[in-house]
Predict the structure.
Amino acid sequence: MQQVKSVIIVGAGPAGLMAAEVIRAQGHHVAVYDAKPSACRKFLLAGVGGMNITHSEPYADFVTRYYNKAPWLEPSLQQFNADNLRAWIKELGIDTFVGSSGRVFPADMKAAPLLRNWLKRLKESGIIFNMRHRLVDCTERTLTFNHGDTDIEVTADAIVLALGGGSWPTLGSDGAWQALLAKQNIALAPLESANCGFYSRWSEHLQKNQAGSSLKNVAFTIKTLDGHIVTRKGECIVTQDGMEGSLIYAFSKYIRDHINHSGEAELSIDLLPDYSHAQLTKKLSSKQGKDSFSKYLKRTVAISGVKAALLYECFNKSQLEGAENLATSLKNLTVRFYQTKPIAEAISSAGGVCEHSVDEFFMLKNLPGVFCAGEMLDWEAPTGGYLLTACFATGRQAGLGVCNYLS
């Protein structure tokens, strides 16, 4: 008969709660600690406007969304992929559906019912929740929490740290755990903004007239540091000091890598990705007549507003003369970025506990019996359900690691 052990989970987000569920299912005593008054605050915020839980694309494509950390995360993702996650949600009484973009959502598009059902099941299984407990120290098997005006020291047979990254610090993911692990000589990659906006130096005219405008149906292209060409279609927002929005977020790793490497990143924008260069040249061959250049652009290829402003931002008049030159310019605007937006404004973060600091179940090599999960590990992914899937999957993997360790 297996001996019942005690396990502490620090962090009541998806990764921590998934680890708690796995460990409790093996009969061990599980207590969850979190600094906030309630669980999964960032998860609930992600559900505002539609809870994108995972993505339905084929697994071979899905796993590439984790960039160079895909091989590290793949064992966890293979064991708990998008289909497994949808089946697990179904067990909680929540149906899911696939949207037109391939993203997967709960049937009612909300995070709260899913979380409510999950917390009910966890509590009924015997998991104890200790909220408003902030971790202030961590050594092997011993944790110190601040609760009110009191420091409380607790010990356990195993520990799972699922403290999040550095984005949205007001919701609990403030990265304060870095100092605690650094004291234990755990190798950490610096936390950086991911799925974030970037600063660019716009002209005063563009700032004044186009800030907040949506840049729709465009394609971005960038050459990564290792020489790959990445192109994607979508939309984003031109802000007063740069760009925000889904398409720019999808390029955030590549842009950030270039800024870190050389202080600047160049992104190519195709304003009319549905036209080939030849098709565009043909359309632009019609005579301008008495129209102004701006009216001619609008009449022939429907370029106006923020797209026209970006065209004028990137090229001088002589570069736009002639149908072929104009077609080339419309399909290849170069925009430069010089800095990422602050991590507190980012959707997620990169960096964290390095791969070589943990074993295959994310147990810290310098602290046997202490495991990590979720965004505090050094990986990143774009929005679209990839972030949450990996949080669930690494939480489950850490939970399995705890069970193996305790046996």
Summary: The mean pLDDT is 94. The radius of gyration is 24 Å. Residues 153 and 235 are 50 Å apart (CA to CA).
